[in-house]
Design a protein that fits this description.
single chain, about 290 residues, P1 Nuclease, about 60% helix, binds zinc ion
């Protein structure tokens, strides 16, 4: 959906490569299983650093690294910097006229920006594991969209230039983190009015059947959240467009209108390249 926020000069390349971009945008989650350094890029457990840390935490990587340590930062997640670093890569790819690079980093940054809009990606209690709410992560970010997103509207207007991307990304982290209490408390209250057998249902996916939140439960939760999931999805669509556009402008608005459709082989290559460090077979998770 972010593609449709782009200006005339950009939209063709993105539209032509839409399917590839979609596939590439889920690669970062697949990489998590094969590259140790990938995991921390998807979240920041900002509450580990104290109650109001989201407002006081050093914004600059160099400063944060001096105050805490690289290991501490990595252990608690680095999503704000992952987005900013990827922004540099994407800008460079635009400057070099590197079509595969543009696609790759557009997909990566889209993934991280979307993750940053999930409140539970900003807390140590990311799956409700400390409050007896195990599974809430999936309920919020997967189950609700599965049921409702067909009715969401993703028209968010045109991409706009971001003057200060560092400030902007920390605003997103703040806004997401401030929603954590509601996300947890509302589910906690709701679960009191649902018996276990109404809260969960067995669902068939392919050949396997597994226990998951029931549709009535997910719907009731979404209703109490008053459109939060949709608002966060819309906000991430807009910000993804804004970042793509900003990188292109910063690169000097290169002409990419003649770029062709990248072939599927590109995606295979991308998968291979990213799994070089640890062969896929060795993880046992992917074949
Ligand atoms: Zn992720």
């Amino acid at each position: 959906m972010a593609i449709f926020t782009l200006p005339q000069e950009m939209i063709l390349f993105y539209k032509n490569n839409m399917l590839l971009l979609e596939e590439a945008s889920v690669q970062p989650d697949i990489r998590r299983y094969v590259m140790e350094e990938e995991g921390p890029r998807h979240y920041i457990d900002i509450d580990v650093y104290g109650d109001s840390a989201v407002f006081t935490f050093p914004r600059k990587w160099s400063v944060a690294q001096e105050v805490y340590s690289r290991d501490t930062l990595l252990a608690n997640g680095i999503i704000p910097w992952a987005i900013l670093w990827t922004k540099h890569e994407l800008t460079a790819a635009f400057k070099q006229g590197n079509d595969a690079g543009i696609l790759r980093y557009s997909a990566d940054i889209a993934h991280y920006i979307a993750d940053a809009h999930v409140p539970l990606h900003t807390t140590i209690n990311y799956n409700g594991q400390f409050t007896g709410q195990e599974g809430i992560h999936r309920l919020w970010e997967t189950r609700i969209p599965e049921i409702e997103s067909k009715d969401y509207t993703f028209w968010v207007g045109k991409a706009t230039y971001i003057a200060d991307t560092e400030v902007r990304i920390w605003e997103v982290i703040e806004s997401s983190h401030l929603k954590v209490d509601s996300v947890l408390q509302i589910e906690n209250q709701l679960s009191e009015s649902f018996s276990e057998d109404r809260k969960y249902a067995y669902r068939k996916t392919g050949k396997t059947e597994r226990r998951d939140y029931s549709e009535p439960y997910a719907e009731a939760y979404a209703a109490l959240l008053r459109g939060m999931v949709e608002r966060q999805m819309r906000a991430s669509v807009k910000l993804i467009g804004d970042f793509w556009f900003t990188c292109w402008v910063d690169a000097g608005q290169p002409d990419i209108t003649d770029f062709k459709i990248l072939s599927d082989k590109y995606l295979d290559k991308l998968k291979k390249k990213d799994s070089l460090r640890i062969p896929l077979q060795r993880t046992g998770l992917h074949n």
